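Protocol step 4 of 6: structure prediction from sequence.
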Amino acid sequence: MKLVDGKIPVLLVAQVFLLNLSSLSVQANPTLDGLNVYVWDFTTHDFKNNKLTNQMTELFESQLVNNVGCFAGILQRRDISYLLFHKQQEQEITNELWGISENATTQLKKYSANAVVFGRIHSSKDTLDALLSGEVSPKNISLDVTVQAFGSTKILAKQMVNLKFDTHFRDMLESKMRELAENLCSSPNLWYEKSGKIIKDRKRRLMWLNKVEFLTWDKAEQYCKTTNQKRIAGYRDWRLASTSDLQELAKIAGVTGDHGWFWSTLKASVLKNPRYRKAWLVYVGREYVKLANVKEKHYVRLVRSF
């Protein structure tokens, strides 16, 4: 049996059906909705720049914008460099572990940025200058990048690559920046936000209520209505998950911790006798579905789109 437009055809039968869904999902090219990042100039560990660090910054930005494209927006520093009028402001922002200065946050938010990418080369500017001029022997250095949200010391993502200075360094630099950008965009903490009353899945643009109930199908419908009336987490458009929603939930079970049968909103409405009313369940963790009597109790997690 195949899903049609994400729905399961109603069956005029009484027995339970099991269907493996693992081959039915469709993966689109996602972007991080609402996460606009500002790429700060890459620097050495002593907060200095040279031609190499500038080239890395531009190549990395290019990979994020043109090839990877996981962020909703990229604000490039060279386009709004006048924001960095004060050197002290730059120093405060580049202090990646202890947050971003309030003044800099205010300035950058004028341009809708709400996160910043820092790049740090684990070498001094003098060493890099010497390497570029051929004054010292080739060596390996490492570069790490971090993504940090404004107003927080929490690192959303961090990735590192190793760079080898040799005769082929220029040729491999672009591929290394692409590797760095791709790895950064695959960081789970960028895509999933679990905080307070919600679990936000940016990749699929679904927001799950961070609470699981064990209810009959009818009680689940009432629970959904009550949740919306109370505007839980500030929203009133919570819904019972569809079968396709629950397929997506199965993909992030490692984040939510879910495992078991979950009620979907889809019911077999043609069965008129109340004793035989059935609705569809999805087994989160194994990606199976089945019909079950609505009087049975199963897990319920509400969801909304954003």
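Step 5 (inspection) to follow. The first helix runs from residue 51 to 68.
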